[in-house]
UniProtKB/TrEMBL annotation:
Gene3D superfamilies: 1.20.58.1480, LON domain-like, Zinc/RING finger domain, C3HC4 (zinc finger). It comes from Imshaugia aleurites. Residues 135-173 form the RING-type domain. CDD domains: RING-HC_LONFs_rpt2. This is LON peptidase N-terminal domain and RING finger protein 1. GO terms for molecular function: ubiquitin protein ligase activity; zinc ion binding. Residues 456-465 have a biased composition (Acidic residues). It comes from the Eukaryota. Residues 474-483 have a biased composition (Polar residues). Residues 445-483 are annotated as: Disordered. Keywords: Metal-binding, Zinc, Zinc-finger.
Amino acid sequence: MTASRQEGFTCPFKDCGRDHSLGDCSQDVTLAKVMDRVSIEVAHSRRSSDTPTLLDERPRWRNVVDSSKEPRYPASRILSGGRLVATYTMTEIGELKYDSEVAYQTMSPTGDNYEQCDIDMLADLKEATKTELDCQVCYALMLDPLTTTCGHTFCRKCVARMLDHSTMCPICRRHLPMPPGVQSVPGNKRLSKLLSTLCPDLVAARAEAAAQEEVPMLGETNVPLFICTLAYPSMPTFLHIFEPRYRLMIRRAIDSGEGKFGMLMYNRRAVPQGSLGSVQFLQYGTLVRINSVEIMPDGRSMIETRGISRFRVKDWDMHDGYVVGNIERLDDISLAEEEQVEATETTGPAPTQHDLISQIDYMSTQELLKVGTDFITRMQAASAPWLNEGVLASYGPPPDDPAIFPYWFASILPIGEEEKYRLIPTTSVRERLKITARWVRRIEAQRCPPSRDDTESSDSSDEGDVSATDGDSVAQTTDEVRE
C-alpha cells in the first residue's frame, strides 16, 4: 500500500459523505487537458477581439444569505470577446460565482451583440477539445465516461473490458481498486455534460453504434457461442467463467436482457462438421439462458444456465475473441411420426431372450423409458456416488417425461461426452431413449460379464463404445463440468 492510500478524508459533497483514500482522488487528467485547450482558444480570441460587453452578475438569494462575515455585492464588468469569452474571463478572475447567472448588454456603438463571435468561438472550442474527449482504449468518442482513481478517463464499457484482462490502468499502469463490471462506480458527470453540450449529435451516433455492437443476437444470427462442454434442453449447466473473451460475452448477454448464448462441445478429433469443415467445435449444440450469476472480486464468475432448445450451426465468425454463429433451431419429429415409427418397430419378430442389446429396437417407448428409470432405482439402492444428494438437488429427480429423461440421464451419468453428444442431433424421442437404454445394457454387462453369445452380439453392434462405472467407482467427467 502506498503512503497516499494510508491517508483519508471525508467527502465534502452532500450526496456522498463517505471516507475516501487520498490516493484514490487524483486530478481529472482529461478535464484538465480540456480546460488547457479552452484557455488557449480563449487567449487567442482575446488578442484579436474588440467587442465590449457589459456583464452583470445575478446571484441567487441563497448566495447572498450565505455571506456571513463580509457582504459580497454582485460583480459587474465590461469585457471583450463575446459572451462566451467574456463569461470565461470573469470566472477566471474570480468575480463570478459558480451558481450565479449573468445578464449581458452590448456596449457596441452600432448595437451589435457579437453573436457571430460566440458562434465562431463555440465551433473553435468543439474542434479543439474533440481530440481530448476520445477514449484511449477504443479511440472513439467517450461514451458514459468513467474516471479511474488515477485520474484517467475511459468509456465505462472499456473500463469493464480492461478489468477482464488486468487491474492496471493502461496509461499509467497504476492498480485500479474497482469492482468487476464497474456498474456501481459513478460516472464523470462533468465530462458527460460537456460531451452532450458540445457535440450532442456525435454522442447520439456513438451511443447508437455502441448499442449495435453490444447486441448479442439478431434473431438466429450472430448468436454468441461458448465452446466448452455439452448442455441439454431443460437441464441446468454450471459454468466457471474466467477467460476475458467469455467474460465479455457473458456480460453482453446479460446486458441485452435476454441472457442467452449457445453451448458447443470441442471437436477434439477434428472430425469434419458438414459444410463447416474441420472446425474447432461440433456442429450441434444447445441454446441456454442465464439463470443466476455470482461475480467474484477478481472478475471471475460462476453462472447457472438452463437449456432452451437445440440448434445446428450453419455459419460462424469471430467477434472480440469469441465465436458467433448463424444457427438453425433443431426440433423433434411430430408425435404422429413417433407413433408410426414405434408401431413399425414393435411389430417385427422379437429377438432371442439373451440378446439384450437387440431387444431394445423392439421395445415400446414406455418400456425404453422404464429401462432407464429402473436402472436409476437400482443405482440409488446401491448408493452410487454419482447419484448423491448434491446431484439430485442440482438436477432434480428422474423425470417421467420420455422427451426429457435422456437429457437428465446424460447430465448425471459419468460416461464420455462424445457418447453423450449423440443425443443432441437426434430428432426422435424414441431414438434418444434407445441410446440411453443401450448405455444401461452395456453398463450392466460390464458389471456382470455376459455369455459368449451376448458378447458376439454386442461386438457386432454399430454403436459407439460406452465406458461407465458401477456404484463403487465414479468417473470425473460430470464433476469436472460441475466444478
